[in-house]
Design goal:
Layout (H helix, E strand, L loop, with lengths): L12 E4 L6 E4 L9 H14 L1 E4 L6 H9 L21 E5 L1 E2 L5 E2 L5 H6 L18 E8 L7 E5 H6 L3 H7 L3 E4 L1 H6 L8 H5 L4 E4 L1 E3 L6 E3 L5 E4 L4 H15 L6 E3 L6 E5 L3 E5 L10 E7 L15 H6 L7
Parallel strand pairs: 2-3
Antiparallel strand pairs: 1-2, 3-15, 4-17, 5-6, 7-15, 7-17, 8-14, 8-16, 9-10, 9-13, 11-12
The protein binds fe (ii) ion.
Length: 319
């Protein structure tokens, strides 16, 4: 039985990383049960800073799931290509170590890694699902000496600094998200027809409000395909402009991984991307738990098959 070690919340320190995004949390061991007061401080810091970095958290899969579940129910992952049924359904395995071939390293030419390379596009986890993820927690089990960083930007800060006219133009709009669309920008045929049928395009509110603190952000990323009610080209331009406004280099929080870091981020208002590394030479083994969102952000949650949808379907997206 795990001893009930208690960490007085006064021992926890929270240090902002950038003025508008991120904080480092110290003074807590997440492998042990966390008392309510400490948990409340962490949860408040999450709502305030959107990205939390915990160093030196040597977590097992079970410990990571237990801490993650303090925030709410976890979502089950879709099976990544080649990674089927290896781990608990609440865990995502992001790794270039091949379990089927003596743990050899998989380089970027491997089809499974091609699929993972989609994580190098700015995105927010699970925005292609009818109930998008609230948060993700990523544990660095093995990290490369160079590269493989994770970068974050705040869509909340970006919304707050938009010109008034743009804000008026996007308020109340709905965006259609699809992982078939985002992966089609990388390569064809990454999904088989069974996967494709299970991943219909979904509708997401373009502007979202955090129910805990009323802070507003827009909600875009690589899965965001087009904005309903606008001509397709215009909606693509607007999505590209919003992305460029959000990801200006001076606004990027880069996390350089050390082993046993745990990083948690708010998928409702943060975009992230993984950076490349020499995958044929160095292992990078990460485990992700994902908190389920509270519900759909738009009703109805699924996009209908429209003339527009048929007209713009990119090559490689089977619908
Ligand atoms: Fe991700």
């Amino acid at each position: 039985m795990v001893p009930q070690t208690r960490y007085p919340s006064a021992m926890v320190t929270i240090t902002p990383l950038l003025p508008h995004l991120g904080a480092r949390v110290e003074g807590v061991d997440l492998s042990r049960p966390v008392d309510d007061a400490t948990f409340r401080r962490i949860a408040d810091a999450f709502e305030e800073h959107s990205v939390l970095v915990f160093h030196g958290q040597r977590l097992t899969d079970e410990e990571q799931m237990r801490f993650s579940e303090r925030f709410g129910p976890l979502e089950a992952t879709i099976n990544s290509i080649g990674q089927e049924r290896r781990l608990h359904p609440n865990l995502v395995d992001l790794s270039n170590v091949d379990p089927d071939h003596d743990e050899k390293l998989m380089g970027w030419s491997d089809r499974r890694m091609l699929y993972q390379s989609g994580n190098q596009l700015w995105h927010t986890d699970s925005s292609f699902k009818p109930v998008p993820a609230k948060a993700s927690l990523l544990s660095g089990r093995e990290v490369p000496p160079v590269g493989g960083e994770t970068e974050f930007v705040s869509m909340r800060h970006a919304y707050a600094t938009l010109p008034e006219g743009t804000r008026r133009n996007i308020d109340g709009r709905v965006t259609v998200h699809s992982i078939l669309y985002s992966r089609s920008t990388i390569a064809k045929g990454l999904f088989d027809p069974e996967h494709e049928r299970a991943l219909p395009p979904v509708r997401q509110a373009l502007v979202r409000v955090n129910p805990a603190n009323g802070r507003t952000s827009f909600y875009i990323g690589s899965h965001a395909w087009y904005i309903e009610g606008l001509p397709y080209d215009e909606s693509r331009r607007l999505l590209d402009d919003l992305l460029a406004h959000t990801t200006r280099s001076e606004l990027v929080l880069q996390h350089r991984w050390t082993q046993w870091d745990l990083v948690m981020w708010d998928n409702r208002c943060v975009l992230h991307r993984g950076r490349p590394w020499d995958a044929a030479k160095h292992a990078r083994v990460m485990r992700r738990t994902t908190l389920a969102g509270d519900g759909p952000t738009a009703e109805p949650p699924f996009a209908t098959r429209t003339e527009l949808w048929d007209g713009i379907v990119p090559e490689g997206v089977g619908v």
